[in-house]
Design brief:
The protein contains 16 helices and 17 strands. It is α/β, with parallel strands linked by helices. The protein folds into two domains: 195 residues, YjeF N-terminal domain (Rossmann fold, 3-Layer(aba) Sandwich), CATH 3.40.50; 234 residues, Ribokinase (UDP-N-acetylmuramoyl-L-alanine:D-glutamate ligase). It starts with 8 loop residues before the first helix and ends with a helix. The chain binds ligand NAX, adenosine-5'-diphosphate and potassium ion.
Length: 463
């Protein structure tokens, strides 16, 4: 099983059911989950007083197991329940707890609070008074833990079905769920910890993990490491940022095919002045180009459209970003080359694909399937989706990335990694990871240019 697998509630239930069908005892699985959660809380909180809030289902059952195991270790534990327990396993876990069971609505606050009210079985938002009570108890605690999920989040879509407080730690059971990674739920989870359940779990959707990168081969030369061509437009800064990101991505050479000609920036970047779009086709007629980037600073007029058409017709592996995505949403454009990488933010995604249903993961998948392209659906939760159904979801990106030009850096990085690897899904995943890691290495209030300086360290950390 991959430690990155992301499963929807129904997939999780199917995996659990398959384990039960093979003879795994449901109560043994609950004990296993509770033991893992108790261990994590013990390591973090030791003997500080702890209140476990238990709901009616198996999530509440996990809570009773956690309460019992921590009390056995000498932690002063109190338990408060919402109602009677409604499943066989939960009733058994409750029976094994020999302390009192208080009422969630009237119980006193504690230094540590464990939310075992609802997990993947939540079907609607919590009642207003219960949600308010949970919020008050979590906010007055020094440490708070959500078992599997914070109660009130939509497991499969990451929306908030009722008010949800921000937890210190969320302990995912067995596998990640979309709500651990997608906003706004992800932000309520706090630190994410995975507790293994030791049952087989597989999914095409995974949490984005740190990539393994390699140093250039001893026999490498600049073209074998990948030549990136960046098509410029009316706004020089955007294509400069993208070109510099490509140059610092590990690619061998970067050529900027720009309207403006030399415009400062790194001396390592070869600037070619391509004043007329008609001249672009011959510049692109170079088989050494391993990846092409079009879009950053391109503009939206007839000239920009002609440059985009030349790019689409070149046959090179490519990354399509920014203005090029907006142009592609217009009528009578050539089709998107299969295997291209598209990097839309929310607005560009909506213009290209309209209103799709489901979670951000579902929407990215549908867009990849429809376009035949790799979709990097950007934002505080970036989703990379391939037409074959593979998905990687990035979590925990710095919100300081919400500044102009960071998307241009990502696009340049993606083109650079595409030139190096020749594998668009892998390249997109590597780019999103390196972009996020570069941001983590920058001081608050950084600007897009600062990301470029942080890239070598982000790459070095993955060699
Ligand atoms: N299936 C299993 O064997 C295992 C499940 N585990 C735990 O079980 C959880 C899932 O358990 P369940 O399927 O029992 O689901 P939950 O415990 O998440 O909640 C389901 C119960 O809550 C009720 N309910 C749903 N929404 C409500 C609302 N808004 N207000 C009031 N009641 C509401 C449902 O009718 C049902 O009785 C997982 O998240 C995980 O914590 C773990 O113990 C591992 C093993
Ligand atoms: N609130 C946020 N938290 C984390 N990352 C963000 C946030 N907002 C934007 N980003 C990231 O910053 C980049 C912004 O890209 P984009 O919107 O295209 O900006 P620009 O066009 O100005 O370069 C994307 O990689 C996106 O995922
Ligand atoms: K919970």
């Amino acid at each position: 099983m991959s430690h990155a697998s992301v499963l929807k509630a129904a997939q999780m239930r199917a995996a659990e059911q398959a384990a039960f069908d093979r003879g795994v005892d449901p109560y043994a699985l609950m004990e296993c989950a509770g033991k893992a959660v108790a261990q994590i809380i013990w390591r973090a909180g030791h003997r500080r007083d702890l209140l476990v809030l238990c709901g009616p289902g198996n999530n509440g059952g996990d809570g009773f197991v956690v309460a019992r195991l921590l009390r056995e270790r000498g932690v002063p534990v109190r338990v408060a329940a919402l109602s009677e327990s409604g499943t066989d396993s939960a009733r058994r876990a409750r029976a094994a707890w020999d302390g009192p069971v208080e009422d969630v609505m009237t119980t006193a606050p504690a230094t540590q609070v464990v939310d075992a009210l609802f997990g993947i079985g939540l079907s609607r938002g919590l009642d207003g008074a219960v949600a308010q009570r949970l919020g008050a108890l979590v906010e007055s605690a020094v440490a708070s833990y959500a078992v599997d999920l914070p109660s009130g989040v939509g497991t499969d879509c990451g929306t908030l079905l009722s008010d949800v407080p921000r937890f210190g730690v969320t302990i995912a059971l067995g596998a990640w769920k979309p709500a651990h990674l997608l906003q706004p739920a992800a932000e309520r989870c706090g630190r994410l910890v995975l507790a293994p359940l030791h049952i087989p779990l597989a999914s095409q959707v995974e949490r984005l993990v740190a990539p393994g990168l390699t140093v250039p081969a001893v026999t490498a030369h600049k073209y074998s490491r990948g030549l990136v061509a960046v098509i410029g437009g009316g706004m020089a800064g955007a294509s400069l940022l993208a070109s510099e990101a490509a140059a610092r991505s590990g690619a061998g050479a970067v050529r900027r095919l720009a309207v403006d000609g030399p415009a400062g920036g790194l001396h390592a970047i070869i600037d070619r002045h391509v004043a007329q779009p008609e001249a672009l086709a011959s510049e692109l007629d170079d088989q050494r180009i391993a990846a092409l980037l079009v879009g950053p600073g391109l503009g939206l007029g007839a000239d920009a459209r002609a440059r985009l058409e030349a790019a689409l017709e070149s046959g090179h592996p490519m990354v399509i970003d920014a203005d090029a995505l907006t142009l592609l949403a217009e009528e009578h454009m050539p089709s998107i080359p299969s295997g291209a990488i598209l990097t839309p933010h929310e607005g560009e995604f909506g213009r290209m694909f309209g209103q799709l249903s489901g979670s951000k993961i579902d929407r990215a998948r549908a867009a990849a399937n429809r376009s035949g392209a790799i979709i990097v659906y950007k934002g505080a939760d970036s989703v990379v989706a391939a037409p074959d159904g593979r998905v990687a979801v990035a979590v925990g990106a710095s919100s300081w990335l919400s500044t102009a030009g960071t998307g241009d850096v990502l696009a340049g990085l993606a083109a650079g990694r595409l030139a190096v690897t020749g594998d668009p899904f892998r390249a997109a995943c590597q780019a999103v990871w390196l972009h996020g890691d570069a941001a983590r290495r920058c001081r608050p209030a950084f600007v897009a240019d600062d990301l470029l300086d942080a890239l070598p360290a982000a790459i070095a950390a993955r060699l």
